[in-house]
Amino acid sequence: MRQSTFERFCRTVLIGGGAVGDHGVPVTSSSGRRSSFSSHTNGGQPHVECPRSFVWRGRFAGTAGRAPSLSRCMARFFHELIHKIVRLAWPLLLSAFVLAVALYFWLLADLPPLDTIEQRLVRPTTQILDRNGRLLYEVIDPEAGKQINLDLSALPPACVQATLATEDSRFYHHPGVDPIAIARATWQNVRAGGEIVSGASTLTQQLARTLLLSTRERYEQSVRRKLREAWLAWRLEQRYTKDELLALYLNQTYYGNFAFGIEAAAQIFFAKPAAHLSRAQCALLAGLVQYPTGYNPLHDPDAAKLRQLTVLRLMHEAGFLTAAERDEIAAEPLRYRSRLFNIQAPHFVIYVQDLLARQLGPDGLRQGGLRVVTTLDADLQRQAEEAIRYRLDLLNCRRPGICDKNTDPNRRVDNAAAVVLDSRTGEILAMVGSPDYFDAQSQGNVNAALALRQPGSAIKPLTYAAALDAGWSAESGVPPLTAASILADLPTTFYVLDQPDNPQPLLGVDESRPVATSQGAGGKVPYTPVNYDRTFHGPVSVRTALANSYNIPAVKVLDRIGVPILQRLAAKAGISTFASDFGLALTLGGGEVKLLELTAAYGIFSDGRRLDPQAILAIDGEPPSIVQRSSTSVISPTTAYLITDILSDKVARIPAFGEGSPLDLPFPAAVKTGTTTDWRDNWTIGYTTERIVGVWVGNADNTPMLDVSGVDGAGPIWHDLMLAAHPTPPPPFVPPADIVEISVCAPSGMLPTPVCPRTRIERFVRGAEPTEPDNQFQRLKIDRTTGHPPTPGTAPEQIIERTFWLLPPEYHDWMAAQGIPNAECGTQRAECIGVHSGSVEQREEIEQADSAFRIPGRPLGPALVLAMPTSNTGYQIHPGLPRANQRVEVAGYVAAGQPWAELRLVKDGVILAEGAGVARLNTWWTLEEGEHHFWLEGRRSEGAALITSPRALVMVEPFQSPAAMDGEALTGAPPVAE
Asked: For 791-846, what is each residue's pLDDT tens digit?
């Protein structure tokens, strides 16, 4: 039987035998070996011998004595083949599975899900706004930067085109990975000898890298990072549309200088929103993405320009620009902003950041995306900054046409600070820490409003408040003073603890208070305070002493109440820097304070309660934790009003500050100045019922200014700011119900008597008003011919009565220096009576008359009295003040109070003022250097004899620095404050 081709194939190939003949007889191989299959007959039937390796079982086994057929043999073969394949393949399959799992964990397992992409977006920055919602600053996280999201439709087309041409021209034609770009980059890199000269990352891959890979991995140069990036890019493409991805890219890409997103970059580099960018600016920003540091236009504008030209070329090649447009845009000049960040009120903003950092923590501040509404008034802040710069220019003669460098020298003052508070809430409406935050030469970044400086006399109101307040006086164990209480402004030496490590004379809190004495105790040194004008004013009221900032009375008041009392009151008012022992010098500015704290401390003079500065109105619509004024009572409301009444008394401060000074305003305002020794600091702090304004002027490096006091340095700035802070006049100060007004004898503070030369209305706390009549002014008999007390031999007709001012012995030397008659001298010391020269008319008995021009101590005998200036008075011409403001009043009156036919005020024979039918006359005289004589002359009636008053000698000399004047206080003396 002939076999089919298939059978021969099976026998030969599948069964594995050798060549088989037509009848199935194996063909002997060349080696003589038979095939493993053999054929023989069994009852005439051919028999196939299967390979021995086959094990016949089951349904493949033949019947007894019979071999399997060919079909069974083939089935058995395939079964065995599959069995072998499975036996050999399962390790491979297992290996492949393990490899796949390992690859997954190596490549994909730790990739974040796309659901977290919103959490990984750069959050909008924290915005600090003024009280009206105007942007002051955005708080930039150094690891996040400035970021503002925009819709794609809000961007200029040129910005989108420049980005696509530069970063991914086939963005709309690939699924997240661009094979063409990969092939091109590979070829270019191979041609470069393996150096990477071209990349193939698409915009989507860059997004995946920025938003979904860790910071460390973003900068890896590895296959793994590329594969992970490609996988994430493909997934992003499946989730977002192309426009959404492009908008996400433009809002999240880093452009340098902490700018994340094109809107932030536009504001940082060009100070404008992205919607207003020109094509040239769009091209420049698109070029920054590749190398933000190297192409930073603020640091290397040339490199940035070259990169912009490259972007314009790519835009032309991509078909976005014609050649003419490319060249036109390339020629457009680029102007960058001068400062890195748009920041208004920088010192205040930094102050607010510190407050937020303490409240929220630094991470919450930088990454919170907060909207912080502050108390600042941006308009008032701008006015404050302008006022400071303008006034400093005047002081330094930097305003041609306004100052003359030949007559107005440079005052060597570079710095100033100012704070404006709402006197009812403590809200900070303006804070200027220096004229220019960015001026490194003058240390402009130092916030002088928070720096420690010596306040000079600006601290005195707190001293007097403690002395006038019943509660604090009770703690010190002394009765409270009143505004009419008399203080002795006389040469006084105190003895204080010697502490050589401290430049100020100190008083230990456990030591007894020093007293005026001529002998020092063990371990103590003499301390003799002096007044700013280097003169002594005798008996002065508390009102006069505080209003004119006399130093000696202030030290005596602190000596009376004790240094610890002032320290505790200051701390309760919000001053945190008086913990050390500064001794009696504390009341003259021996300690150090912050302008903000001292300005807020003046808030106690509103109603007696502590005023804490407030800088934040709301955070994301939620009010801050502190929104109301403190309920802490520091002084009584009545004490607060008395201090306010004194500091707002324009008339009371005329002797020291004159009339028409920068301290005078067209509405009620209380004010105090301060100047430290060597002109290192000067201050003016004042307030109304609505605002408190504090100003400091000096130098950040503590170098002295040239003759700049508080009234001519800080005063004009304070004046400008008070006007700016009060567009409408504020309400007047209203006295509490417990304040009463009564008439007192001005020189003594007691109830007036018929012989009191001058009375005035004074305010008291109910129950503290004087009850005893004045006993200092008394009518005494004298010899009219000699002016001396009568002797037993004096004729009765020569004895007349005169009014004398009887003061304690401690005043006698001062009275003699002032030419004031001293009735207590007696006949043994007639020379100290101070007899006045003049005609007989001057010595006649005259009628007592009250007059506003009378001064304490002048005998009431002369028919004509020159009230001002007083004799033997010295003045100095201050170079820092306008000459027109340096005037003194010249005044006189008819003692009897009856009008005379004519009166004239005369200086050195020159008539200053004259009047007819008047009883008093006054004028103002501008100071002139030299020795001058003043008098009042007049006639009772036409044709009557000319009568003159006693003459007053006045000396006027150039100003001398306190440190250069004779009589300088001993080493360790406190600043000489005005």
From this structure: 888 888 888 888 888 899 899 888 888 777 776 554 333 333 333 322 222 222 22
The model's pLDDT over 349-394, given as tens digits with 9 standing for 90+, comes to 989 988 887 877 655 665 567 889 999 999 999 999 999 999 988 8
Cβ atoms of 542 and 481 closer than 8 Å: yes
Helices (H), 574-692: 595-601, 604-607, 637-647, 654-657
Distances in Å between the alpha carbon of 315 and those of 165, 170, 174, 206, 388? 5, 13, 19, 20, 50
Tell me what percent of the chain is helix, strand and coil, each rounded to the nearest 5. Answer: 35, 20, 45
pLDDT at 857: 39
Q: Contact, 287 vs 295, CB < 8 A?
A: yes
Domain ranges of the chain: 5-80, 141-330, 456-561, 840-978
Using CA atoms, how far apart are residues 911 and 543, in angstroms rounded to an integer? Answer: 34
Q: State the pLDDT confidence band at 780, using cuts at 50, 70 and 90.
A: confident
Rounded Cα distance, 549 and 487, in Å:
13
From the list 298, 276, 257, 269, the residue with the least C-alpha distance to 146 is 257
Token digits of residue 112: 């974040």
Class of domain 141-330: mainly alpha
DSSP H helices, 801-947, are: 812-818
Amino acid present at 616: I
Helix axes 157-167 and 242-252, enclosed angle (nearest 10): 90
Q: How remote is the C-alpha of 199 from its chain's centroid?
A: 48
Q: Which amino acid is located at 815 in the chain?
A: M
Query: To 5 degrees, how large is the angle CA 605–CA 607–CA 612?
Result: 75
End-to-end CA distance of the chain: 143
Residue 200 near residue 189 (C-beta atoms within 8 A): no
CATH of 840-978, one of 2.60.40.10, 3.40.50.1820, 2.40.30.110, 3.40.50.720: 2.60.40.10
C-alpha to C-alpha distance for 355 and 361, rounded to whole angstroms: 9
754 C-beta neighbours (distance < 10 Å), count: 11
- Give the Cα separation of 332 and 236 in Å (integer): 38
In terms of phi and psi (left: phi > 0; alpha: psi -120 to 50; beta: otherwise), the region of 787 is left
The residue assigned the tokens 């010190």 is: 476
Q: Where are the alpha helices (DSSP H) in 151-275?
A: 157-167, 179-191, 203-212, 215-218, 223-239, 242-252, 262-270
**Which residues contact residue 477 at a Cβ distance below 8 angstroms, ignoring those fewer than 6 apart?**
none
Name the residue with tokens 């300088």: 968
Alpha carbon 109 to its chain centroid, in Å, reads 50
Q: Are 287 and 262 in contact (CB under 8 A)?
A: no
Tell me the β-bridge partners of 925: 888
Q: Which residues contact 483 (CB under 8 A, 6 or more apart)?
A: 468, 541, 542, 543, 642, 645, 646, 762, 763, 764
The beta-strand segments (E) located in 473-519 are: 486-489, 494-497
How is residue 331 written in tokens?
Answer: 């020629």
- pLDDT tens across 889-924, in order? 788 877 666 788 899 999 998 999 999 988 888 888
Residue 385 φ/ψ, nearest 5 degrees: -65, -45
- Amino acid at site 324: A
Asked if the bond preceding 869 is cis, omega within 30° of 0, the reply is yes
| Tens digits of residue pLDDT in 451-481 | 999 999 999 999 999 999 999 999 999 999 9
Query: Cβ(888)–Cβ(870) under 8 Å?
Result: no
- Of the candidates 325, 324, 282, 288, which has an alpha carbon nearest to the alpha carbon of residue 306? 288
Up-side HSE of residue 583: CA atoms within 13 Å toward CB?
Answer: 26
Cβ–Cβ < 8 Å for 610, 630: yes
